[in-house]
Here is the input.
Amino acid sequence: MTPETETELSEAVRDAAGPLAVVAGGTRAHGATGAPLSVAGLNGVRLYEPGALTLVVGAGTPLAEVEATLAEEGQRLAFEPPDMRRLLAKVADSGTGDPTIGGVVATNASGPRRIQTGACRDHLLGVRFVDGSGTIIKNGGRVMKNVTGYDLVKLLCGSHGTLGVLSEVALKVLPAADAMAVVRIEGLSVSDAVSAMSQALGSPWDVTGAAHLPGEAPQTLIRVEGSAASVAERGGKLAALLGQGAEVDVDPDPEIWADVRDATVFAGGSEDVWRVSVKPSDAPEVVRRVPASKLLLDWGGGLIWAGVAPGSDVRGMLGDVAGHATLVRAESATRTRLGTFHPEATPLAAISEGLRSKFDPRGILNRGVMG
Here is the structure.
């Protein structure tokens, strides 16, 4: 089913005789069971006011189209949504198609700039969606602080289509930077890299990216953005602050951060890939405990991408380290055995189940995705 209007979407959900697997661009295999329900037909820019930094688009609008529209006005999605197609290319039913803005919102997909500007949900102004009974619901608006009562905008963002099918989203956008500089330090251990990234993030130099690539030739990357003169000055001050042979590149290849954003170090590999969120200070201990063949640290060490032997249970390796681990790439048998998401604590699981029963009383939306 590919409805082309919100009304058709509502009717499709209302009249469904069984479970529905909600899809957008089809770039990820989310494991839902049921008849495919695509929002690809709900596309296009509904409202764009560059002066008000506001964009309203259909949920099925390709992310590339959204970014191209913003680029024409010198603006961007500040939360830097990743493109997982290269990472997932070898997974069945993944790695193809085109990412959509609805998929970005449904997964709260956020890239390296999250440490400075916040996640997707922090830029989401309003949503329109269809719940599991077929009811069309609107929440939020086109300006900040426009929500009274329950903030369904934040609730829907990251719910992976289990509470409702997005039909339209309103987003706050920001001006794009004129220039970028990267401070690069080579040869640091994970512990020293986390320390350096924390020092950079605690500085007044407005860091917008902090990543570490371990391996035979470790690299620690710190990004600053703004005007050309500003990034050169701030990059120099950061390099002086960090020491340890730090060098400033005032004309870096922008693909450096696209590779960090999209975790392309794992592209084409056969290992399972996990995404582990922890306190940055716990990152060295996580790296010590997890026997990963490849690693990538983002968000100053708060996000760890780990490539491990197929079938490995990274959650069991974390032990008493607080955080959560999400299985991003694995064979279907491993995903079935371990599940995609970190199990919720009993009180939180009860709240989640209660929400799903309210928004999807028949249990038909993306069944099996989040529990």
Q: What stands out?
A: The CA atoms of residues 198 and 332 lie 37 Å apart. The mean pLDDT is 91. Residues 179-260 form a domain with the Alpha-Beta Plaits fold (CATH 3.30.70.920). The chain has three domains: 6-175, 179-260, 264-338.
